[in-house]
Amino acid sequence: MQPSTNPDLLAFAQELVRIQSYSGEEEQIARAIAARMQALGFDEVQIDRLGNVIGRVGSGPTTILFDSHPDTVRVDDAPQWDLPPFSGEIADGCLWGRGSVDMKSGLAASVYAAALAKERGLLDGKTVYVTATGYEEYCDGEGLKAVLAERDLRPDYAVICEPSNNHIVTGHKGKAQVIIRTHGVAAHGSAPEKGINAIYEMAEIIQRVEQRNQALAATGDQHGTLVMSQIASIGVSLNAVPAECEAYLDRRIGLGETEDAVRAEMDALIAGKRATWELGTLHETTWTGAPLVYEPLHPAWQIDLAHPLARALVAAYGEVFGRAPEQYRFWDFSTNAVAVVRLGVPTIGFGPGDDKLAHMRNERCPVTQILAACGVYTELIGKLS
Asked: pTM of the entire structure?
C-alpha cells in the first residue's frame, strides 16, 4: 500500500519548520504543537513545567509512546542555503528547512498517526502518548526523563521518531562527555623551570586519547570512539607558564561497553599525570525558566528483532511498503531513547529523513517519507497489544 496523501499533515510539518526553535527557545513551537493536538481531538494535551508537550489518545492498559524533539541546532550560514532555512518550502519532492530532517517531519507524522489511530478505532485497550520534548540537542533524554518521572509513567513500548530514512533502527551507541584538567604551577615565562606547564602535562594524555581511539576501532562492528574535541589553557598572562589546561572528550560507547569500563578508561588516560577528570555536566534553562541538569553518560542499547515491538514494526512496515524491510539500521548518535531504555522499556527507532543531512546546510526531507512514516506509525499502533 503506497502512502496516501495527507495535505494537512504536510502543512503541519511546514508550519513546524517555519518556526525557529533553537534549544531553549521552543515556546512558540510547543504552543503550535499543543494547539494542533487539541484541534485533532487528542484526549489530553499538556505543556509541562519544562516546556515539553504531552499529548494522549486512548485510555487502555497497553501504553505506547512516540517521542520527538522540537528543538534544532542553530543556522549560521543562511545565505548559503539554496532555499531559506525557515521557509518550510516544498520543492523537488522534499520539505526544506532547518529541522525538516532533525526532526520536525517525524514529530508531525507521529502527531497525525495518533489522531488517525483514534479516528480508525485502533485504540481498543491502548493508550498512546505523543511527546515533543525540548532541549534535546544539548541534553538528550532529559526532557523525556522528566515527563516520565512526573507522570510516574513507564510505557510498555517506545518509538523514537528520529530520522532513519524510514529504516527500522534497532539501537544506538551510548555517549559520555568528559572534561580532563591538568594542573601545573604558574611561573613567569622567562623562568619556566620554576613552574610546571599544564599544557605539557596534557601532551601525553593527548597521545593516549589517540591511541585509545585506534584500539577501539580494532574491536569490530559498532565499536566505540574517542575524540578530543576541544582544548584550552588557563594562565595569568601570555607571558606565564599556564597553571591549568582543560580538554573535552567525546566518547561514543559501543554495545557491551559498561559505564564502569568507561570510567576506568578515563582513570587510565590520566594515570601518572597531574590531572583529574569529570563528566561534562551541563546546566541549562528551558524556555519556561526551569533548570535542566544533564549528566552525559549513557550506555549503548539494542532491541532484538524477535521482540514483539520489533515484529509489530516489521509488520506495519510491510503493510505500508508492501514488502519486508531490506535492511536495518543502528544509529551512531545518541537520542532521547536513553530516557526510556534506562527504565527497561522496549524501544525502537523509525523516522523520515536522511540522518546524514541533520545539522547540515540544505537540510530537507522527502515528502513521501513523511507520509509513509505516518502510515507506519498508525499501523504499528493497531498491531501492538
From this structure: 0.94
